[in-house]
Fold these 4 entries.
Entry 1:
Amino acid sequence: MIGSLAGVLTFKSPPHLLLEVAGVGYELEAPMSTFYELPAVGQRTQLLTHLVIREDAHILFGFATLEERALFRNLLKVSGVGPRIALAILSGMTAPAFVHCVRTQSAAALTRIPGVGRKIAERLIIEMRDRIEPADSMPGAGAGALAPRSDAEAEAYSALVALGYKPVEATQLLKAAAGGAHDAAITGAGGSGGSTEELIRRALQGAVRG
């Protein structure tokens, strides 16, 4: 089993990438969460991997973190969820946001991911409930990992990461934005201060001020 690869990134076009290791080019597929962390073509990088063996192909998947790969592997154990849907889930939301959806039984948030219908979303919630780690044992839990309190915060978090912010940076920006939205709600300013759009707007304003 190939557990990881370290080499030169020679091609990347979501979801495909090519990593040259000791003269051998390895084709991989990766979620968008990993693509956000990749360096420029021509630079060295290291990815954790998971090999899926089918009758017609051997497909190697790459991940930036242990958390992503662990979630991918657990998703594959869910009835009706294959590599494509698992990849779409990791591309549509971060691992912490997915865990939040499962814990809060937010099927609606999961169905916004392409390929995830209502039945699969409900199955994910039921079958993943006992497979996700407790909040205090998740990687990064002690370093400000995000635990969204609403779908709006989970969506805003994913949007910030998609814009290129690191998970820790997105967490810090959202904490400040959520506090600002709360203050606005108390004073009656800002209208729907807790909406996804408002949280993103406040977070980006905070990033500019910072």
Entry 2:
Amino acid sequence: MLSKLRETLTISQLWGIVSIVAGLGIMAAALFLLPPGEVANFYDDKVGTLLAPPTQLTLFVVGLLCLLLGGWQFYQGFSPNLALGILGSLVVLAFMVAITSGRSLNLPGIVQIALTSATPLTLGAMSGIFCERSGVINIAIEGMMLFGAFVAIPATALSGSYTVGILAAILTGGLMAALHAVLSIKYNVDQIISGTVINILAAGVTRYLNIRVLEPAGLSATTPIGTWRVPILADIPVLGKLFETTPPTLVMLVLLVLANVVLFYTPWGLRTRAVGEHPRAADTVGIHVNVMRYANVIIGGCIAGFAGIYFSLGLGSFEDNMTHGRGFVALAAMIFGKWSPYGSFAAALIFGFADAIQGKMQNVLQVGIPPEFLQMAPYILTIVVLAGAIGRAIPPNAVGKPYEKQ
């Protein structure tokens, strides 16, 4: 039945139907679930109230816009990606207004939490981009992040310096990446298997050493790294919260721009993309294919190791499997972002926004939904996003294919 429906309807028409259903659902929710006369108050600590839209009227308008979008998409149609973006924005707007109905919500605070939550995902996605743009699949981001998180705590506790802890995490991530590179490039081990081995190794080794070494020696905790305030910028109303955040987040923003410049505007990036797309052609013009792959995989591992400090130094201690699958979500962000730093950052922000909303729904808005279901929301959203992107995201042509010079 579904296959016949897909044969008779185009993708644009299917998204049109989804948009119409979403519009009808939003309007029904406004009519039957929300009491009349309530407003949703969005405020800022410095400015006060930013927006106070009437909830029922706002949801009716948003629902109507979804219906118009669906009708246009069904009969005329434009880019499915653009339609998905507009529909997603309208649904998120309706959801935000609905859950804040009769309550108050710090809107800049939500954006700040979303950016912070997106930090390890963006760093993990950049790690994967460097690896896969050069032709090496890396599903070991989770393990590299976990190793980095683990090593940062005793290094900081012993030295008394966050700098030493951060460098130790970066070095450890690089070493794990070097192991992955040797197995994948030199010995032609299946790259999926190699990454899986590193993930399993990280989970087992860090747990054992934490219980047997760090805890008995009193090295399993240190002072959390805290928050940095960018002078002057942090005092700007509304936008100031973006400049009052954790050090990994600020570094991530710098690395984001740097990675995009390196990959798309420098000879190094051109060579990296060449060995990931057509290694034989790159070899014929004098590019050392496997050398480039080794270098990029190790660079990616260093970034993943740095991502690990978000968890351990941010908390001030190490906990078993504290990355909680963020490395795999980072891979999803990389795919949805089509192997580009900015695209991956946008995808990571979607997850970060969902994470921020579920936290606020539990702790501030006191929404009557079991917390376990709310904690599932970011991962469900990741699945939905990937379901919309899969099939249209084309990886580098030679990714996962070992290269042997002839």
Entry 3:
Amino acid sequence: MEKHSILVVDDDQHLRMILHETLQSCGYEVEIADSGEQALEILAQKPFDLIITDLMMPGIKGIELVAKARERYPNIGAMVITAYGTIERAVEAMQKGAYDFITKPFSISQIESRVKRFFEYQALQIENRTLKRKLQEYQIDTKIIGESPAIKELLQHIDIAASSDATVFIRGESGTGKELVAQAIHDRSERAGKPFRKINCAAVPETLFESTLFGHEKGSFSGAYRQQKGIFEECNEGTLLLDEISEIPFALQAKLLRVLQEMKIIRVGSTEEIPVDVRIIATTNRDINELIDSSKFREDLFFRLNVFPITIPPLRKRKEDIPLLIDHFLDVYKNKYHFEKKVIAPSLMQKILNYDWPGNVRQLQHMVERAILFSGREETITEKHFRFEEEGSRGKNTALIPDEVVPLAEMERRMIMAALQKTNNHRTKAAELLGITVRTLRNKLNEYEQQGLMEE
């Protein structure tokens, strides 16, 4: 096991030598310095686990030494030695990052136990960080579902990206889970716990884009009644997801490039540069090379974003994950709608596996939820409950339309009856579930009663 290293700093030669001898006999690697200035010189040459420094010394005092050392070497521990009359100053040193203080006079056993306690505390902190990382890994593995080679490779890429601060460029079709991957990278990075913000570049009006990203000063344009921070400032020290980056107006791409290169923003209506510390993740579902060739996206901005590229495979290229995804969604929605059991019929599962899934995981999720509602009290979900969507399916799956095709009015009736069953005939809750008013629901039920369609 590697020895812990300690730097002892004291202008009292006798005390320096006692501490050096005592700690060395305990198995620590010990070096000494007679001043704060010399200590900083030694720290610049090699790393230490712990500084033990006298509080009152000529030149750089113990408080200042602790502050400077902790600023330059955040992982280093610090303990201060103080007389009874300066305990308040010792408390100040602890506020600057010192772990403990020792009052004079002290015994050898006190020094030994205090130092031992510090390294036990340090080991516990390391263990906690390790456990936290493992918990994050577990949480991510349960969100990104699949055991296919493509998903295993994706998880490896997430690990690598999370261990760095490089800009990540995620490509994938709509519904593949680009935002989920971005969140996973943030959660496993050193920025976890700091802000994670998302901006959908396709949803921001061009006239508000610069203000949304960089903020604005009061009176900088019509409607700017007060100073407003942009998303870069709000996300400082965290991660910013620029979703659908391909939709950013071409005129603003040069400004974004400058911010990414310099990590400084200028609010609209100001000339002051504001430094920011933001990790960038960008996504697109479009052919970025085609956009570059047609002069709709700056090539230099692409190069700046594409430091660590990740491509998410479409669902049709990892169909072995579909049964796992279906089991997950069945659990989610049977709990949401209070069913005890829901399973997919084998014949339906085969059709699901043969389907092309143009909308990817998001489409599968929505179709499973809809099938659970259609199935009502039936435990087994069959072809009559599952509606394959022809639109956007690449023209390959017309044979997969279920045998039973019902009018929209009948489909609506089944949805209403299913919602009432899920809510134990609570009309207000059923209306909320369906996204309609209670009055509309009441009118529909009156129609079904007049038509003799209330048997379900």
Entry 4:
Amino acid sequence: MSFLCAARAALVGQSVLRRILPLVAVVILAGLSLSCGNSSHGTPTGPNHNAYVTLPQKGSVLLLHINGATGAITLGAQTPQVQDTTPTGLALLPSKKFLYAVNSFANTISIFNVASDGTLTLTGTPTQAGGSSPNAAVIDPSGKYLLVTNNLTDSVSVFSIDSGSGALSPVGSPVPANANPAEILITPSGKFVYVTNPGIGMVTAFTFSNGALTEVKPGSPFFSGAGAFGLAVDGSERFLYVANRSASNNPASTIGNISGFNIDPNTGALTTQILGSPFTATNGSGPSAITVDPSGRFVYATTQGSSFSIWCFSITSTNGQLVAVTNSPFSLAAGGLFALIDPSGNYFYIGSQSGNGIAGYTYNPSTGAPTVISGSPFSTGTAPGKMVLSE
């Protein structure tokens, strides 16, 4: 089964150099400033930081070091391997003090203390997930709650987080989430939660307040398409996009598509599908991971392999409609496990089902076209599960 993550959006600013210089020098500097463009994509700048990835086959979590200037990944320490756990979902507390790994086979959640250098130490005994085959996890924007999908018991568990110890306490009983919930997303405001149900091609919608999940009625679950899996929302939470990896298209030149929905700002209901939805590519098949870039300009959906594997669309700001960018889909190494962009918008990482693990790219802020980071793909030894960035 593929496993995904969503990335939160943030905009990258640019600084203007001001100096008291002769007029000619000022003109020259201004010209240079204009020619440089967005520094985060021409010559990315930013601090080095860490990331984490689960390794389901090894029963461990791997620390990754990301070079802020190049986006290149080097491997850090790996937690001790624990058999029969199969960690998949991953969530990092906003304070970066604690990391949570969801153990799908053991039906538990491991809690790790995050040291100043990024290394992880297991704290206490793993917490029971509250359901069978827990899969994906997300922390609400306040950092007070952890939500986990339970794939085989058709539910979502909610836990309150102790800010001092990281300990988890169940909030009521797991909430029904229709058949085999897989991926989970919480909107930037923390008001709404969406879960995909691949087996029935639906999206289950909830409101979320003070740890309480309430399914949106009437309406939920909402039909998306066969194999509905990955989820992404724009920063204004007006539009929700869903990757339907096995949906049929007309004409049937490709398999799989992207559904786009308008979100009711008061209820969280998926009121209508966006004009032109579902959206598909001219080539390629099976998109399962999806993300929106921090600027809110582009949607990326990814598939396994390297042929027509990265689908890129520009977002029409007025109505959320998707338009394929020039040369999309791109035949570059990709994967269907996760697709995430760092909050500064510098780097784009894709999880692959192969041992090479993670493909890394920069992307053009005007055209959306991806460019391979030197050294990519980066090996994780075995296929990863989920990845989170610490930045």
